[in-house]
Amino acid sequence: MLILDRFEGDHAYIEGPEGVFSVERALLDAQAREGDVLLLLNGRYVTDEEATSARRARLSKLLGRLKR
User: What percentage of the chain carries pLDDT values higher than 70?
Assistant: First the structure.
């Protein structure tokens, strides 16, 4: 699974199975946000909307448990 970690200038940092790596920001969809699950398609990183929604819901549920 590839997760968009952060943006720094013209680079995006992506967390993958091998660790964090950087790519040119231009290789991502313009609407990509930090925390999105990404897919590599035809040399570009696109947001996996379904996986991102599921991940955000799971993390929100975990955070809710911590706040109790």
Answer: 100
